[in-house]
Amino acid sequence: MTHRELDAESIRPYCPYFASAMDMLGRRWAATVLRALLAGATRFSDISSAVPGMTDKLLSQRLKDLEADGLVERTVHASTPVRIDYRLTEKGAALGKVLLELNQWALEWIELPASR
User: Fold this and answer.
1) 112 to each of 40, 51, 63, 116, how far by Cα in Å?
2) Is CATH 3.30.70.100 what the domain over 13-109 is classified as, yes or no?
3) DSSP structure string for 43-72
4) 86: helix, coil or strand?
5) What ranges in the chain are assigned the alpha helix state H?
6) Which pLDDT score is estimated for 85?
C-alpha cells in the first residue's frame, strides 16, 4: 500500500481520499463503534453497553459496514452458545490515534447540554 504525505503546500480544497474516509467514518455511530473497539469492547453486548442510545439493529448494521470496509474483523467461536468477537483490523487500529485526537478535541471544544 502506498502511504501519501500531506504538507501545507499540497492541501487542496477537495481530496477524494479524505472524502472517502469521511464517508466511512461519517455514517451514524461508525466512529463511536470504532472508539468502543479501541477501548477494548469485543463482544456485541460489550459494544452495545459502551454506546448508549444505539439500537441493536443499527449496531449490527454498523458492524457489518465496518467489516465490509476492512476496519473490523468478526470471529465466530464454535462453542455452546456460539461466541462472536469483534476486533479492529490493522487498518482499523491505525485510526486509533485519529479517533483519540478527535476525542481530545471534543473534550476541549464541545460543551454537552446539561441534560446529558
Assistant:
1) 25, 16, 27, 7
2) no
3) BHHHHHHHSTT--HHHHHHHHHHHHHTTSE
4) strand
5) 16-25, 30-38, 44-50, 56-68, 90-93, 96-109
6) 97
How many residues can be counted in the chain? 116
Q: What is the pTM of this model?
A: 0.86
- Cα dihedral sign, 25-28-109-99: negative
DSSP state, 8?
Answer: G
Backbone angles phi, psi at 76, to 5 degrees: -100, 125
Distant-in-sequence, close-in-space partners of 100: CB < 8 Å, separation ≥ 6? 38
Q: What is the pLDDT of residue 77?
A: 93
Query: Phi and psi at residue 75, in whole multiples of 5°?
Result: -120, 125
pLDDT along the chain (116 residues), means of 10: 68 90 96 95 95 96 98 95 95 95 96 80
